[in-house]
Amino acid sequence: MDPVLNPYAPGAGSPPPELAGRDEVREAVRICIARLRLSRPAKSVLLIGLRGVGKTVLLDQMRQDAEAGGTHTVHIEAPENKSLPALLAPQLRLALLRLSRSEGAKDLAVRGLRALAGFVGKLKVTFNDIEVGIDYEPEPGLADNGDLEGDLAALLEEVGRAARAAGTALVIFIDELQYVEEAQLAALISALHRCARQKLPVTVVGAGLPQLRGRMGEAKSYAERLFTFSDIGALADADAKLAITVPAQQEDVEVEPAAVDLIVKETQGYPYFLQEWGKCAWDVADASPISVEDVNTASTEAIAALDESFFRVRFDRLTPAEKKYLRAMAELGPGPHRSGDIAQQLGRGVASFGPVRNSLILKGMIWSPTHGDTAFTVPLFDDFMRRIMPGETWRERAQD
Ligand SMILES: Nc1ncnc2c1ncn2[C@@H]1O[C@H](COP(=O)(O)OP(=O)(O)OP(=O)(O)O)[C@@H](O)[C@H]1O
Ligand SMILES: [Mg+2]
Known about the structure:
alpha/beta, 18 helices, 8 strands, 9% strand, binds adenosine-5'-triphosphate, binds magnesium ion
């Protein structure tokens, strides 16, 4: 069928044609923000899930929902090597400038911009990656102690006061939150806690890999009092079916029920895979309805496409030692696996794999569900590792 009209959208952060199965968590965030604006206590939400389950697109949708309701928002994505203050400062500046255009909030927003100037001026020494325009002179004593925890709290309080005066809230959406360093994460949690105690309408809605849950608790033990952790995973069968059938129907195309079932089975309901299968099945089919035979042909193409994109980008970032470690994990199946069993595959003691395991965790490739266990953060990655490093030759260099 005409590839130009193909509705499916495989790709990192590509909005799906049908955002299936996420209404409940969207509603939870809507309620949280509405309560915040009424100065009612509200736990914010952190979306926790593996690669490709749809955290980024969900966060984007929540942001649109919030803006549509008159809530101010900013969005940042934490990369592996940039400081949180460097990411936050330019976004908070934009938020404050926007608030300063609101009559009732102007003075407080200007005070916020002064706080930002103090914040940046002092912290630039520690975080020399901060780059932000300064609109007003700092006010001595305002967010300028030079310690992140106190200054971030002071800054967010000013932002919160300005947002309250403007009759809105500021929601900071942060993607890939697991990459934020522990001390910076602690400062953020503590700042939000201070805002919450004063009922100021500032919050964070975040997303990250499963290790984020543990990292939040390690950063501040009371993190769970501020956040609800919402597991974002594979879609339930009924939702996975909708993810395939609704976009087709919108283009007047039918998918045979058995073909839909086959896609759901092959993808195990994982959102990224659903989009890839939908796209390939559409391109393979000559005409509506898309049949089981079409899906069978599409499966080969979809796997090849995933190998070249979704899996490949992650694989290419690995060192040879990291690849070998993941290959050993894959040998044992989807996991989670005991660290000892993985080490055994590689013929050496567990301790010697500490560094490689740590760097894989830092890169967000694996995580530890419970002490001594290791799991992939990418669904179906074990199959991929066996495809890309087939046979037994990977073992030959296992003694390296
Ligand atoms: N609820 C959904 N229904 C259907 N498709 C979805 C849904 N959520 C996401 N997708 C699709 O899944 C793919 C991955 O989405 P997204 O990039 O948001 O995942 P992610 O969890 O942020 O992944 P990563 O951890 O790699 O950043 C996209 O192609 C998107 O269109
Ligand atoms: Mg993402």
